[in-house]
Amino acid sequence: MASATDHSQSPEGDTPQVTNRRSAPGVSKVNWPVFIVSAAAIVLFTLWAALQPETAYNTLETTFDWLSTRLGWYFILTAAIIVVFVLVVACTRVGRTKLGPDHSKPKFSLFTWASMLFAAGIGVDLMFFSVIGPATNYFVGPGVDIEPESLAAAEEAALWTMFHYGIPGWAMYALTGMAFGLFAYRYHLPLSIRSALYPIIGKRARGATGDTIEIAAVLGTIFGIATSLGIGVVFLSYGLNIMFGWTVGLAVQAALIVLAVVVVTISTVSGVEKGIRRLAELNVLAAILLMLYVLISGNTVQLLNALVKNVGDFFSRFPGMLMETFAYEAEGPIVDEGWLEWWTIFFWTWWMAWALFVGLFLARISRGRTLRQFIIGVLLVPFAFNALWISFFGNATVSQIMDGGLSLDDAMDGDGAGFFALIAEYPGATFVIGVSVVVGMLFYVTSADSGSLVLANFTSKAKDTTSDGPSWLRITWSVIIGALTLVMLALDGIYSLQMAAVIIGLPLSLVLYLLMVSVWRALRQEKYNAESLEATLPSALSERIGEAGAGAPGRWRRRLARHMHYPTAEEISDYMESTAMPAVEEVAAELAKQGASVYCERGLVPETDIPQIDLHVDFGEQGMFKYQAYPIEYSVPNFALRIHAAEETYYQVEVFSATGSSGHDIFGYTKEQVISDVLDAYERHLAVLTMSDADGGGSVTLNTGAIPNDWDHVRTRGNHE
User: 267, 449 in Cβ contact below 8 A?
Assistant: First the structure.
């Protein structure tokens, strides 16, 4: 790749090369190696499955049987480890670390943020499994000494589905969201999976290693999306059969898949995506009303009693359920029906396939929140809704089966008949079934739209944390996903998709382990940063006192004036050109003269064209030193004296290190004060490297400043707000 920045030194070797660069946010460029390889792999697999369906199915089945029976314990253990890891992060001191600079504030209010988390827990698959799951659990009776189709099996039927949609899966989402958010918003890397693994793979993130990781992520995400869309297609085709008499089969399913592709194309080309999002928000309200309908129209008291019991049983039995492998079950429905393989193991691998997708969304809405707030919110808010939905629909299903109103075979039907058969037992069934189909349809098309967007982003080079892949790429991915979903359904319906999800879960589980190591290393670095600030504070203070003294003539007046004035863009530009940038460049030149590996680049802030400067000192495999003076725009506070603020906005010249800004404003500093500030930061960085080396973790430190080439685009206004 061609470098966007020249990191070399001048011919004399004593002055770092300074590059002026203009960057602007916009549509991301395609990452051609990742796109071509991943798209080709899926297209070839789809063609193979279409042309040789029997061979493809047998291969899937053989691989699935081997993985689920030989490595089932591994998937269950992995889910447990992830739960423990995110809880440790949330409950310890590192939980105070923010997804963004230390001074950053959440973009969304607590209520709005919780509402978005709430909406993330709803989908057409929840409608499908909230009935078929408890019905199957009632028939199988998972648990210790539970007789199938007994009262004990009925008490636990909804509980196990609640468990499969509960905290373990959301812990996977919390892990990936935490990794995306930390490295994008706190360490200024692109919002991509290779960024989240930077502490492990280092500079290789920009090459073939990074591409390979992202290809694996794309393939896993595709099968996760295809599984969900396949379930939605089957569910909706049965609902349309009830409403209009359309035959349940590939013809209707193909029409639904084409509909999803058309919706994605329209939303992408016409720009009505926001309208679709609004429909999705209204759809959440409709889903809530549907849940309340079942609660109020059914045996309300019994359903509420069952809810309280389910929640109590969930938390009291959670550790045992989390590690349950049914190791001593030699016979019975759990073994004969392959319950563990088709339910717990499938769900954990399915969550893994969706983890990067949903984690990306969670990170984008959570900038400025602490890890503790983020993890607790992600674990509990969506689960709360899932628990309500599954408890009401699941217990209503089991009650109807036990009372003879609903056939067990219908409830367990893999074509989605169970949900509509349950609704048929309630008053106003025809209307409610129609509403259910509409709700499921909107969930289905918005999932397809979101899936194509995320895959386009995964196969693009992010210019900033808010840029998306090109429109044609989104449409291409929607077509590929649709073709894959249809071919997999043709093999053996939902079962083929479930088998594929388990198979793809193996490499994705390895990615999740790497993310845990990466996050742990980053958080350990945070500890070093905090300790280095304390260790170097005396030196910084003595330098300030020795330079000018607190009582230097006129200094206190200049200090007061800085807090009474709200500088404009023009003033900031003049200050950067006359003082800040020459000071930083002078330090860079001296560092280079004394043998350091230095580069210093000038640039322009996107949209405003105000100058900014970025100084890096390379320490090889150790963490690179970064000092970036970057103007940030703010709204003038309400308490400001308007005589000192003619505009509605003003600027600060904030200093960014590899871990973001702490809100430190250097506007108004003299040249010597800016130089002292650079040296203070440099001394703190040396202290961090010393602590890391003494702790035996020299390779742990984050080399975020070393990210070259296309990754330079990440240093845009969106990362510094």
Answer: yes
